[in-house]
Design a protein that fits this description.
By secondary structure, the chain is an all-alpha fold. The protein is 74% helix and 0% strand. The protein has 18 helices and no strands. α6 runs antiparallel to α7, α10 packs antiparallel against α11 and α16 packs antiparallel against α17. The chain starts with 8 loop residues before the first helix and ends in a 6-residue tail after the last helix.
Length: 358
């Protein structure tokens, strides 16, 4: 689970057996009121902390294995107190302390993996026979960190079939932001080929088709998923109504920037805060927050002090209704660039606006 690998029957049996032993022991201590009271309190805390981790694992969420560490911390502390080392012989105390120190060292070493998703999945790919799904996980982590080139490289790896739809969807999202409509459509179609009920891919494909004046195709996609998937029905039909407002758009060819088919030009773009920020600004003016956000992260990853990028970040926060965050960004710009009039004007406009919402 930790590295995104498929669970084997053997791994499940061993893990379930050890987990059952721990839970039975905790149940015995709580039921028989055996051991010091602090131990019982720690075991109750461990059981409480274990519930969300079980739910998350059932939902195939990576956060589930992180939460297991939380419950383990309470349980191990309970075991340590329950040993009553002061009542043991010197030899037993030494052995027990050695085991506890070893557990602490190993736990500390493993905890380093959880500093970030990038650290975790980079380590996962170095493991023996790593799961190909880790390329998807690492790609998403890099995408969130603003490393678009690294993300695209990992999304392009061969994947397990179960991860194909998400891999193609993420590539489509990235290509849409870069202004590569043909590539975005290609990967959205591949995502839906791998998983026809991927609503996010259907939604984005319908939006892309509609902006190209292909409203009939867009509505057909949404109506089809509304009939197949009852959970997506309401959202799909609502999106159909939204797209009807774009029915007057003329049909046009897909827009494709110069770097769409040129890997070298794409690498140059990923290293250029000016080029990335220009794209982000276009998406912000169109109100496309989802497309602008990764580009702004990429800008600030290349140059954290790039003023135009920080201004776009403030604008992004404003579009998302996060006024306090926007104010912090603008004030930080003025702290380092007192003469920056654009930041000052944005702050003045915020102060003049009526206080509604956040």
């Amino acid at each position: 689970i930790e590295y995104g690998q498929s669970l084997t029957t053997q791994a499940l049996i061993h893990g379930a057996f050890l987990g059952a032993l721990l839970l039975l022991w905790m149940g015995f201590v709580l039921g028989a009121k055996h051991g010091p009271r602090p131990v019982r309190y720690l075991y109750v805390a461990a059981l409480v902390a274990f519930v969300p981790s079980i739910m998350a694992v059932f939902l195939k969420s990576m956060i589930g294995s992180r939460l297991v560490y939380t419950s383990s911390a309470f349980a191990l502390a309970g075991v340590g107190i329950g040993l009553r080392l002061q009542e043991r012989t010197v030899a037993v105390r030494r052995v027990c302390m050695g085991v506890l120190i070893l557990l602490a060292v190993v736990t500390t070493q493993r905890a380093r993996l959880w500093r970030s998703d990038t650290t975790l999945f980079s380590a996962a790919l170095e493991a023996t026979d790593p799961s190909t799904r880790n390329h998807l996980n690492l790609g998403i982590a890099l995408f969130d960190d603003g490393d678009l080139g690294g993300a695209l490289e990992h999304f392009s790896h061969d994947m397990d079939r179960a991860a194909l739809d998400q891999s193609h969807y993420m590539r489509a999202l990235l290509y849409t932001g870069l202004g590569c409509e043909s590539l975005a459509e290609e990967h959205l179609l591949k995502s839906l080929e791998a998983n026809p009920n991927n609503y996010s891919a259907t939604h984005n494909l319908a939006g892309l088709l509609s902006t190209q004046g292909r409203q009939a195709e867009a509505q057909e996609r949404l109506l089809a998923i509304s009939q197949r998937d009852s959970f997506a029905r309401q959202r799909a039909l609502a999106q159909v109504e939204v797209l009807k407002g774009l029915s007057n758009l003329p049909r046009r060819d897909p827009k494709n920037a110069t770097w769409c088919g040129d890997a070298t030009a794409r690498r140059e773009l990923f290293a250029s805060p000016v080029g990335l920020n220009r794209l982000a600004g276009e998406h912000l003016r169109a109100g496309q927050v989802e497309l602008a956000a990764p580009l702004i992260r990429a800008v600030l990853r290349v140059d954290p002090w790039f003023v135009a990028g920080r201004l776009n970040l403030a604008q992004l926060y404003l579009l998302k209704g996060q006024k306090e965050e926007a104010r912090e960004v603008l004030e930080s710009i003025l702290n380092t660039n007192p003469g920056e009039e654009r930041a000052r004007r944005m702050l003045s406009a915020m102060d003049a606006a009526p206080l509604t919402g956040r």
